[in-house]
UniProtKB/TrEMBL annotation:
This is Cytoplasmic tRNA 2-thiolation protein 1. Belongs to the TtcA family. CTU1/NCS6/ATPBD3 subfamily. Gene3D superfamilies: HUPs (3.40.50.620). It is found in: Cytoplasm. InterPro entries: CTU1-like_ATP-bd, Ncs6/Tuc1/Ctu1, Rossmann-like_a/b/a_fold, TilS/TtcA_N, tRNA_thiolation_TtcA_Ctu1. Plays a central role in 2-thiolation of mcm(5)S(2)U at tRNA wobble positions of tRNA(Lys), tRNA(Glu) and tRNA(Gln). Directly binds tRNAs and probably acts by catalyzing adenylation of tRNAs, an intermediate required for 2-thiolation. It is unclear whether it acts as a sulfurtransferase that transfers sulfur from thiocarboxylated URM1 onto the uridine of tRNAs at wobble position. Prior mcm(5) tRNA modification by the elongator complex is required for 2-thiolation. May also be involved in protein urmylation. Its EC number is 2.7.7.-. Its main location: cytoplasm. Residues 57-236 form the tRNA(Ile)-lysidine/2-thiocytidine synthase N-terminal domain. The gene is NCS6. GO terms for biological process: protein urmylation; tRNA wobble position uridine thiolation. GO terms for cellular component: cytosolic tRNA wobble base thiouridylase complex; mitochondrion. One of its GO terms (molecular function) is ATP binding.
Length: 369
């Protein structure tokens, strides 16, 4: 006697949901997965409303990977089914990584045709004059994610502005968010927990960003893509040595194996984390200090981080300098990772080369959301 779907109780159960352990049929799996994303969208704004406004232009950060491919598919379905009234676009950033991003962008082009969504591709090369291949040649593999992350943030904003878009959505899933919560706790960055678990975030100088897959498990996203036969690119970035996240990921996967609810439980913990009043007061004081006229030059908007890193690259940032900046990380104000010190290390060939870097790293705060 076949096991029946625990939702419709008529069709044969073919899938065990990784998130809940429920045995369900394929159709009910699709329905429940999409419905949960719909709930995140319609209740995810701060205060409880929808993250979208009717008529909004929304760019889907499309990397060609499973998460953003499933996101493009599900948003297209939900936009139609629930008449969100969104104008959807695909926005891809070409980081300039041969043998990786060029291949995944081919997948995005296929998605463009399949979903009938306009696609804009913007490259680091055209924006910054640097590809990640060149950056890695210069700074080595170890720190390259920092450059890539800062550049991508800014590139997505630029691309979105070029499209006249009000809102960017990304495929960050529940596993990504739980990992980030763990990493922030392990670093003592508790001030970040609420922000990193918010569905929607916006700072003064950036376009609104949302994560409709906040509660979608990675395993379910892969299952959804598999059963829907979606086209996606599944290779890991050839330069991604994000060791710290790697440990958090392995730990999370171990926890998930023992107790599947661990992922969502960790997210809930991050959401419920409330700073006590003394900490809030010191954060406020820090904010005032950070925006005082004397500090104004150091408090440039997010785009300045990309500029500062570029300045470093243009000045000939080498591996040794990068290592030094990494080791020099001091106390992080307001829960932010920062690089307040830089031990000067002049290059033999060019006595001025590191000055730009020195200024740059003093100014850069690397948000590790
Ligand atoms: N090159 C890019 N262009 C546009 N959006 C991107 C790009 N890289 C990442 N993103 C966005 O950021 C999200 C998280 O990126 P991350 O690098 O963690 O990849 P991922 O978890 O493997 O996701 P995906 O499976 O979509 O590649 C992606 O789902 C996507 O929405």
């Amino acid at each position: 006697m076949p096991t029946l779907c625990s939702i419709c109780t008529t069709a044969r159960a073919l899938v065990k949901r990784p998130k809940t352990g429920q045995q369900v049929c394929k159709q009910c799996f699709f329905d429940v997965f999409e419905e949960e994303v719909h709930i995140t969208i319609t209740q995810g704004a701060q205060g409880g409303g929808s993250i979208f406004e009717r008529g909004e232009k929304v760019a889907i950060g499309a990397s060609g990977g499973k998460d953003s491919t499933v996101l493009a598919h599900v948003l297209t379905v939900l936009n139609r089914r629930y008449d969100y009234g969104l104008d959807l676009y695909l926005l891809s950033i070409d980081e300039g990584i041969k043998g990786y991003r060029d291949d995944s962008l081919e997948t995005v082009k296929q998605n463009q045709a399949e979903y009938g969504l306009p696609l804009k591709i913007l490259s680091y090369d055209e924006l910054y004059g640097w590809t990640m291949d060149k950056v890695v040649d210069q700074v080595g593999k170890r720190n390259n994610c920092t450059f890539c992350g800062v550049f991508r943030r800014q590139a997505l904003d630029r691309g979105a502005a070029g499209l006249g878009v009000d809102h960017i959505v990304t495929g960050h899933n529940a596993d990504d968010i739980a990992e980030t919560v763990l990493m922030n706790i392990l670093r003592g960055d508790v001030a970040r927990l609420q922000r990193c678990t918010a569905v929607t975030t916006q700072s003064e100088d950036t376009i609104k960003r949302s994560k409709p897959f906040k509660y979608a498990y990675e395993k379910e996203i892969v299952m959804y893509a598999y059963f829907k036969k979606l086209t996606y690119f599944s290779t890991e970035c050839i330069y991604s040595p994000e060791a710290y996240r790697g440990y958090a990921r392995v730990f999370l996967k171990d926890l998930e194996a023992v107790r599947p609810s661990a992922i969502v439980d960790i997210i809930r913990s991050g959401e419920s984390f409330v700073l006590d009043q003394a900490t809030q007061r010191s954060m406020k004081a820090m904010r005032r200090f950070r925006t005082s006229p004397a500090r104004a030059n150091l408090q440039k908007p997010a785009s300045a981080k990309a500029c500062a890193l570029l300045q470093g690259l243009e000045s000939g940032l080498d591996r040794a300098a990068v290592r030094t900046t990494q080791m020099a990380g001091g106390e992080a104000p307001e829960g932010q990772r920062s690089i307040p010190m830089f031990e000067r290390k002049l290059r033999v060939a060019d006595g001025n080369a590191t000055e730009g870097i020195e200024r740059a790293v003093q100014r850069v705060e690397i948000k590790t959301e």
